[in-house]
Every structure is written in C-alpha cells, then in structure tokens.
From TrEMBL:
Keyword rRNA-binding: no
Protein name: Citrate transporter
GO molecular function: antiporter activity
Keywords attached to this entry: Antiport, Ion transport, Membrane, Sodium, Sodium transport, Transmembrane, Transmembrane helix, Transport
Record organism: Sulfuricaulis limicola
Membrane topology qualifier: Multi-pass membrane protein
Main subcellular location: membrane
Biological process, per Gene Ontology: sodium ion transport
Amino acid sequence: MLVAVPAHAAGLPAVSGIPVDFILFALTLLGVALFHHHTLKVALTGLAVISLYKIGFTGFNEGAGVTGWLAHLQHEWVVLTNLLGLLVGFALLARHFEDSGVPHVLPRFLPDDWKGAFVLLVMVFVLSSFLDNIAAALIGGTVAATVFRRRVHIGYLAAIVAASNAGGSGSVVGDTTTTMMWIDGVAPLDVTHAYVAAVVALMVFGLIAARQQQAWQPIQKDASAGKHVDWVRLGIVTWILAAAIVTNVTVNTRFPEISDSFPFLGAAVWVAIVLAAPLRKAEWSLLPDALKGSIFLLSLVMCASMMPVEKLPPASWQTSFGLGFISAVFDNIPLTALALTQGGYDWGVLAYAVGFGGSMVWFGSSAGVALSSLFPEAKSVGAWLKGGWHVALAYVIGFFFMLAVVGWHPHTPHKAETAAPVAVQPAH
C-alpha cells in the first residue's frame, strides 16, 4: 500500500501528514476519473494549480519561485519532448499499420469458436511487444469490431487493453511506461522479466474474456474476405520502429553523455515518418486529436515530476504491488515518472505492475484511453470493473508467480541525480 511519509520533518505544508503537493495531484486525477469528457481541461488546470502552489510555497529541487519553475522545465524538456514525439508519431504509425490491411487479413487465421477470440488477444500481446501498446490496442479493437460485428463485450475490451499492456510490459518499445524507463536510462534487458508475469496473466484473463465474447457475439471470419496486404505500408511501419530502436540503442550505449541533451528518440521517429511520406501518405488529419491526447498525458507527467518523491515509501516489491492497483486510477505514466525519479526498483517488476495494473480501469493506461475512443461504452468504470473483473485477478496471479520464480532484484539508481537515497527490501 502506498502511504505518504509525514512531511512536517522537511517543513513542507501537509494535511494529516500528507504533503499538499500529493493532495493537489490526487484531486487532479480524481477530476480526470469523474469528468472523462473534459480530461484535457482537468489536467491542464491541475498542472496550473500545482505549478502556482510550488512557485508560491515550496519551490523546486532546481530553485524557488518562477526561476526554479523555469529551471525545472529545462530539466524535464527532453523527456517531455521525446514522449510527445512518440505519442503523436505512433498515432500515425498505427494508422499505417491499419491501412496496410494486416488487421483485416489476420481474422483468416483465427479459429471459429472462443479460441479465435483468445488467439486475437495473443496477437495483440505479440504486436504490443514491438508496436507500442497504444497502437496494438487500437489494432486489436479494429479487428474485434470487424470480426464481432461491433458487438464487443466490455470484458473483452478490457482484455484487449490488458493484452496490449501485458505484451508491452517487457519491451522498451512496447509501452509508454517502459519507453519512459528507456529514455531515462534504464537498460532494455532490465525490464524483460516482466514477461514471466505477463504471460501467466494473459492465460488467466484471456481464457475468461474469450468465453465472455463467444457467449456475447461469436466470431465472424468472413468479414475479412477480399482484403489484401499493402506491403509498402507494412515496410513503413518496420522502418519507423527500426529508426526508433537503432537511435535509442546508439545514443544510450555509445553516447550516453549526450542522451539527456536532446530528444533523439522522438526526433528519429519523425524523421522516419517524413522520409517515408513520399511512398505512402501519412494520415495527417489524425494529428489534432493525437496532439490533444498527448498534451493530456504530458500534463500529468509534468505534475508527477513536481512531486516530493523523497516522501514516497522505500522501493520494495510490496510498494510495486501496490503501485499496480494505484495505476488503475492514478494513471501509470505519472506513476512511472515518480518511480524513475525515486529510483531503486526492480524495473521488470515495476514495469509489469504499472503497465498491466493500469488495465484494471479504462483510464488507467494510455491504451485504455485510446481504445475508449473507438468504443465509447468503455468509459464506464462500473461496467469495466463488472465485465473485466478477470484483469485484476490476472494481475495478482501474475505478480506473485513472477515474484516466486524470478524474485525481487532491485537495481541501483541509474542516474546520479536521483532525488534521494533509496532503501530496498528483499523479497520474502
């Protein structure tokens, strides 16, 4: 369970021992949950209120007042710009993949009964390992809408989001949270053991959700007849992903001293998109909505970066387990930002917790937010919890299976400027 340490010792304003910073952040996230039709306004308002509070009362690690705020922005601009480039760029990449015809051809290879629904979730899982969880969820939703004739059970929608988040949890190009870890300096191999838990979780929620969907609306494989693959568009998808992977590996392994000075990853994605434009036109009309959604997420990340993380509990498997549940309502992107600033986690365990844990509620992950744009009925917390109860069950089973098989192996802080020394606890 996540409990704030009393702030009076550090002289920070607090209510019942909880720093006001966290209270303001929690209210912002509560507003996002309650007013899901006005999420951008709520996030920007929260960012403005927290910024003004920090400027007027507590200051920043970089200094006090407006000067400290500007210095903090300068410190965070590379991470924020990288995320902006990836989030908006992957929206175009997802459309390239959709227009390639692959999502429409895939149903030909699906079994006719509940096993077809399960295999589709497996496909989403695999796609998410290299295609980003947002793109994988949108592709999975597009295929599901086709083969189930738009009658998709909300429990199955939750499973699509869960499959995309589980598949991306062990890959630094598969989830926004793991990409954040990579951008921040975490080694790609340090998150791969998240798959130990993710595969188990997939078996749990996938089998249940597949039977839910079969009972609700059986699969219709003939919907894909006459569709063909556009190999040029599929090549563009591969080209963009390759540009991102090669750039990030090169910068972080050969030139780590400049990795924090420029948003190389985001820039690489956009250079690749622009260079591929003469071959197939990108769907530029997606940019306004993608930009709006990205600003919403970046506002939450910026809010998280201003939290007094030295007041968080010590990094431990218990804390990671609790963060999984909190990510369902707290949004896993700012949670990851907090954990990265704190340091000292087993990054694979944390990647599974905050990545998959966000699937338990529709707005707990960017994949859920994206899929809800295709299926507005998903924007009901009650219906999501009732239909997708198996996701929470799968999270718990997967987490403790990973802990039993792999254990808890915390990594030393990967950056010298980590906010405070972090105590780590061994697994019992």
